[in-house]
Specification:
Strand order of the largest sheet: 2-1-3-12-11-4-5-10-8-9
Oligomer: single chain
Number of helices: 11
Helix content: 25-40%
Shape: globular
Distance between the termini: 23 Å
CATH superfamily of the largest domain: Isopropylmalate Dehydrogenase
Order of helices and strands: EHEHHEHEEEEHEHEHEHEEHHH
Largest sheet: 10 strands, mixed
Strand content: 15-25%
Structural class: alpha/beta
Bound molecules: nicotinamide-adenine-dinucleotide, 3-isopropylmalic acid, manganese (II) ion
Radius of gyration: 20 Å
CATH architecture of the largest domain: 3-Layer(aba) Sandwich
Number of strands: 12
CATH class of the largest domain: Alpha Beta
């Protein structure tokens, strides 16, 4: 059986890194049938299309996964295309888990003194369908000195409970430690809900050791003592911020992978980084985040052996310094992708 996968390379370095991820999937002989879509800034500039009519239904009904590059282009006002396409798909496909592993593959890559690969191996569960990202709010007297601007932090019992449960389940399959991070001391209504739900759900997982950190302390602890963390669960906005921090302690954004997941449904896999306009077109973007995201996609598709082979090849590339300049190597994007593809095929 082959899995139908939609590929959305997007903007900037998106197409550069996705080309390498696709090449690695092909080298791994993953049983996947790919279909590429041209959604992104160029398309928007050409005909004003963000997510075309019917695209969402097509993805939902006919594809098992989406391999996504990045969206973001200085020529598009307010990044309307990114909001419609990326956030649109997260919300409309109800991809409530944003899964972002933070794993150190080589001691030389962490800026944290004395930390080893054993110390930095955590899994972040970022809520992905609500919170400050829900788009609830508006402007009043926009553009005047009296302007009012509001984005509401929308949290639902259902939304909070399902991300907490997903994180508990994952902790069960790992070192059985789960930390929840919020800002309930200041956001008493919204994060009070997180606190209450957390305490209730935790009762069902007595085998999982739980802890709670306010997000400011969580940020500090990820730097000071990352070994404290096994699984970390948090809200949409805090997860966004903490996972860039997480990327920084394991070698940088170029390595970081993610899955936007609704178990059993069409889910979207993408590197954590954006379109990186500062390096786009130069052939120097690190493709390993995109390649690792493709491996996460294979796991979602049930292709565990393929996922493991890709993960091993990425780890080898890092240890053997077959990497781009952001990781201290000398390879181009294409050369790095070729090396990993070769390692996977061997
Ligand atoms: P960015 O992630 O694009 O870049 C941040 C820094 O990291 C830059 O210096 C960049 O050169 C570097 N970097 C990123 N990816 C790299 C890689 N693979 N290899 C080497 N270096 C890499 O973040 P930004 O500059 O804040 O955002 C640029 C655009 O991308 C914005 O429009 C933003 O909204 C968008 N964005 C999109 C996504 C997404 O599509 N998922 C994610 C983040 C940002
Ligand atoms: C990410 C990105 C997005 C987010 C942006 C592009 C809306 O930063 O995937 O981490 O904030 O979720
Ligand atoms: Mn981000």
């Amino acid at each position: 059986m082959t899995h139908k996968v939609a590929v959305v390379p997007g903007d900037g370095i998106g197409p550069e890194v996705i080309a390498q991820a696709v090449r690695v999937l092909e080298a791994a002989r993953a049983p996947i049938e790919l279909k590429t879509f041209d959604w992104g800034a160029e398309r928007w500039l050409k005909d004003g299309t963000t997510l075309p009519d019917g695209a969402f239904e097509d993805l939902r009904d006919n594809f098992r996964a989406i391999l996504f590059g990045a969206l973001g282009d200085p020529r598009v006002p307010e990044q309307v295309h990114a909001r419609d396409i990326l956030l649109g798909l997260r919300f409309r496909l109800d991809l409530y888990i944003n899964l972002r592993p933070v794993r150190l593959l080589d001691e030389r890559l962490t800026p944290l003194k004395g930390k080893t690969c054993k110390d930095i191996d955590l899994l972040v569960f970022r809520e992905n369908t609500e919170g400050l990202y829900a788009g609830v709010g508006g402007n009043f007297k926009k553009g005047t000195p009296d302007e009012v601007a509001i984005n509401e932090d929308l949290n639902t019992r259902k939304g909070v409970e399902r991300i907490l449960r997903a994180a508990f389940e994952a902790a069960r399959g790992r070192r059985k430690k789960l930390c929840m991070s919020d800002k309930a001391n200041a956001l008493t209504f919204a994060h009070g809900l997180w606190q209450r739900t957390w305490k209730e759900v935790a009762k069902e997982y007595p085998d999982v050791e739980t802890s709670h950190l306010y997000v400011d302390v969580a940020a500090m602890e990820m730097v000071r003592a990352p070994e404290r963390f096994d699984v970390l669960v948090t809200s949409n906005m805090f997860g966004d911020i903490l996972t860039d921090l997480g990327a920084a302690i394991v070698g940088g954004l170029g390595l970081a992978a993610s899955g936007n997941i609704h178990p059993g449904r069409c889910s979207l896999f993408e590197p954590v980084h954006g379109s990186a306009p500062d390096i786009a077109g130069k052939g120097v973007a690190n493709p390993l985040g995109a390649i690792s995201s493709a491996a996460m996609m294979c796991t979602h598709l049930g292709e565990h052996a393929v996922a493991a082979r890709i993960d091993q090849a990425v780890a080898r590339a890092v240890v053997e310094k077959q990497v781009t300049r952001d990781l201290g190597g000398t390879l181009t994007t294409v050369q790095c992708g070729a090396w990993v593809a070769d390692a996977v095929a061997r």
